[in-house]
Amino acid sequence: MTVAPEELLPLALSRPHEAIAAAKALLAGKLEPETASIAHQASGIGFRQLGEVDAAIAELRTALKLAGKSGLAEREADVLATLGATLGRAGRSREGLARLDRAVELSRGALAGRVLLRRADVLLMLGRHREALDDLRLAISRLRRSGDQVWEARTLNYRGVIQLTLGGTRQAEADFDRAGELYAEVGQEFEYAETRQNRAWVAFMRGDLPAALQFLGEAAQGYDDVGVQWPDLTIDRCAVLMAAGLTAEALTEADEAIGRMEPGGVPAAKRAEVLFTAATAALAVGDPATAQGRAEQARRLFSAQRRSWWSVRASMLQLEARYRSGERGPGLLRQVVRTAGRLDELSTAEASAAHLLAGRLALSEGRRRIADRQLELAGRLSKNVPPPVRSAAWLGRALRAEARGEVRRMLAACGRGLDALDEYRLMMGATELRARTTGHGAELAELALQEALGRNDPRDLLFWAERWRATALTVPPVRPPGDEQLITDLAQLRDVVQRLESTPEPVRPPSLERDRRRLEAAVRDRALRAQGNNSAKTGGGFDLAALHEELDGTALVELIAVGGTLHAVVAADGELTRYEVGPLARAAVEVERSRFRLRWLAHGRSKSGPPLEVLGARLGEAILGPVQHVLGERAVVMVPPASLQAVPWALVPALADRPVNVVPSAAMWLRARQLKPPADRRVVLVLGPGLAAGRAEINRLTEQYPKAVVLRDGDATAERVLHELDGAWIAHIAAHGTFRADSPLFSSLRLDDGPLTVYDFERLRRAPYRLVLSSCDSGLAKPVGADELLGLSSSLVPLGAAGILASVVPVNDPATVPLMTAVHDHLQAGRSLAEAFALARGTAGADPAVDAAGRSFVALGA
C-alpha cells in the first residue's frame, strides 16, 4: 500500500500492521534521511504496538541515526522521545528518561508538547505521578495553541489516567470523554479504544462493575478491529473480575496472557504488570504459593526497571501470600508495617489493606499498641474509592473497636461496612454479580455473629445472619427491556446444544462445542453488563414481630455457621432460642452420604448399605442436633446456610411426617407468605422430550386439570413455555434437568427446542405462583459469595414464585408419577405446597424407588 510519509506516524498508532507494511514499501525506494527516519520511526511504533519490543527498539535506533544525518533538530527530538518512551516501557527507564530529557531540550512549540507527553508516560509508569502531571499541564497548553488534535487527545488521555490514580474520578472522566471525542474526529481507532478502556476504570473506581464490563467490551472490540492484543486490557479486566468475585476467571485470563508473552515480544513493563495481576488473582483464589512466586517475578522486573511504585506493591503481595500460607511472627510483622508505610508514602490504593494485615498480625502477636495504630490507619475513609474499599476501611474500624472492647462501635462499623456493600450490590443487575460480590462482607458479618454468640443473644444472632444471607435474591435481576440480542443468543444456544446432544460423539464436529462456548460467553457477558436498580430497597434486617405473627404455630429454624460450628435459632410461640448443633463439616459429610444413598436407591443399584432410617437419624443428629426434640407437632420452616442447601429434609425422622418449607432466609419466607396468588387461576403443564414416565405423569395431570394449558410433542418450545408460565397460578414441568456446577445459571430444563436455562427464566415478568419441577437436580444451587445461592429454583424466588417443589437428588422418573399425582390431589384440596408434599410422601408404600423419590424433593418457599 502507498501512504504519504506524513501519514505514517498517525497510522502506526491506529493501524500498526498497515503502518509497518507501508513503511517497508516506502523504504524499498531511495529516500532522504528525513523521510527514511520517519519510515523507521513509524515501523518502530507499529512493532511496539504489536508487542514486538526488540524489533521496535532496533527500528527506532535506526530512525535516530537517520534523524541526526538529516540535521533537523525537531526530527531528532521526535525520534528521541519515541525511543525514550519505548525504552521506558521495555524496563530500561534510566536510558529512556535520559533520551526524553534530551528531547525536551531540543524541542519547541507543538513538538515540545508531544515530547512532554511521552516523558509523562514514563514518569507515570514509574509511579512519579506529580511530575507527570506537571509535564502534562505544559503539554496541553502547547498542543492546544498549535491545534494538534491527535496529540491533545493523547495528553488528555494520559492526564485522565493520572487523575484517576490520584482519586479524581470526575476530572478523569472529563479528560477521557474529551480525548475520545477528538480521537473519533480524526479516526484514531486504537487510541479511541484506549479511552473506552479508561472509562471502564472510572466506572470500576465508582463501584459500577456492569458499566466497567460494558466499556471493557467496547475496548476489546476496538482492539480486535485494528488487530492488536493489548496487555493493559487483560490487567484491567482481571481487576474488574476479581472485584466481582470471579477470581478463578481472573486467574485464568492472567495465566493465558502470560502464556502469550514470548520473550522480547511484550514490553518488559507490561510483562511485569501482568505477572503482578496473576499473583493478585492467585491470592484471591486461595493459592498463596503461586501468588508468592508470581509476585517475586514481578518484583524483580519492577526493581530492575526502577519502578518503586510497583515494586513496593509487589513486595506487599508477597508478604500477604506468606501470611495466607500460615506464616506469623515478629519478623513478618516488622516487614508488613514497614511496607505499609512505604505504600502510604507512594499513595497506593493497597495501603489500607496493608495496614489491615499489619493490624491482624499485631493482634496475633499480642502487640496491642501496634495493632491499634495499624487498624486506625486501615480505617481511614477516602473519597472516590469503590464501595469494597470503603467496606474494608469499616472492617479496620470494627477490628480496632473489637480489640478495645467497644462492642457498640464494633457493631456500628460492621453495619456501615455492609451498607457500603449494599450500595455496591444494587449497582448490579445480574444475579451472579450480586451473589458473588457479597464475599467482600463475609468477615464483617462473621464479626457481628461471633459477638452475638458470645452473649448467647439469639435475637442478634438471627438479625446478623439475616443481614448478610441470600441478599442477591432480595430483588429480581435486571434485563434491558426487549433485549433482542440476548433472546437471539439464547435461541442459537438452544439450537447448538440440541445438535450437540443429537450427534454421536465420534462424528460430532468440533465447531459445535466451540459455538456452544462462544454463545454461552456472549449470553453471560450481556447479563453481567446489566445495570442495577439503585432505588431498590437495601438490607438492614427484617421485621421480627412480623415473623412471629406470620409463623402462627409454625416453627422456623435458622441454621447459622459461626467459626465452623453450626448453631440453630428456633423461632416459635413468639420466642427465640439458640441451640448448638455441632461441627459444620460433620453436617456436610452426612448430607453427602444421604444424597449418595438416595441416588443409588432411586435406580435400584444397591440393596445393601445402611437403611434410610439409619442414615436419616445420622443426618438429623448432624444437622439439627437437639432441635429435633423441641419441634413438637408443628410445621417447620428450615433456613439452612448456602453450604447446606442440598439437604434431603424428608429423610430426617423428626421432619419426615410434617410439612417442611425450605428457604434461603427468613426474610424471603416472609416475602413469599405475603405474595398474593394471581386472579387468573391458569394451570400450565409442560412435557419435555425423551421422558417416557413424564408422559404418564402429564396424562394423569390433564385429567386432574381439564382446563390446563398443555405443552408437549413439539409445542413445548422455550418461547411458548415462557409465555405460558408468566404469571401462572400452578405450573408443572416434567422434563430432564441439568445442574451446571461450573456455570449454575446455565442449569436447564430440556424442552423440545433445546435447554431452557436460568437466563431464560429470568426473562419472566412473574414466575408461576406455585411451580412443580419433577426433574432431576432441579432444586440444586451452587453456594457462592458470603452465603448466596445460584441455581434454577433459587433464581425463581425473586421473580414472584411463592412455592417450588424440586429435587436435590437425581430421581427415578417412573417413581415420581404417583408422588406428583398425589401432590396435585392435595393442592386441589386447598393444601399448601409443603402440606401437599408431606401428605403425598405417605403414599410411597414399600417401593424403595418411590420412597427414595419422596425423600429427594424439597418444598422451597412458603
Helix/strand/pairing category: alpha/beta
CATH topology name of the largest domain, in short, is: Serine Threonine Protein Phosphatase 5, Tetratricopeptide repeat
Rg from alpha-carbon coordinates: 31 Å
Count of strand segments = 16
Compute the average pLDDT: 91
Number of domains: 7
Helix count from the secondary structure assignment: 38
Low-pLDDT ranges: none
For the terminal residues, how far apart are their CA atoms?
A: 71 Å
Task: Bin the strand percentage.
Answer: 5-15%
Major beta-sheet overview: 11 strands, mixed
- Main CATH class of the largest domain: Mainly Alpha
Plain-language structure description:
- With 862 residues, the protein is of the alpha/beta class.
- Helix content is 61%, strand content 9%.
- It has 38 helices and 16 strands.
- Helix 5 runs antiparallel to helix 6 and helix 14 (247-259) packs antiparallel against helix 15.
- The model has no long low-confidence stretch (mean pLDDT 91).
- Pfam families: CHAT.
- InterPro entries: CHAT_dom, TPR-like_helical_dom_sf, TPR_rpt.
- Residues 615-844 form the CHAT domain.
- This is CHAT domain-containing protein.
Summarize the structure in short.
The chain is an alpha/beta fold and 862 residues long. The chain is 61% helix and 9% strand. This is CHAT domain-containing protein.
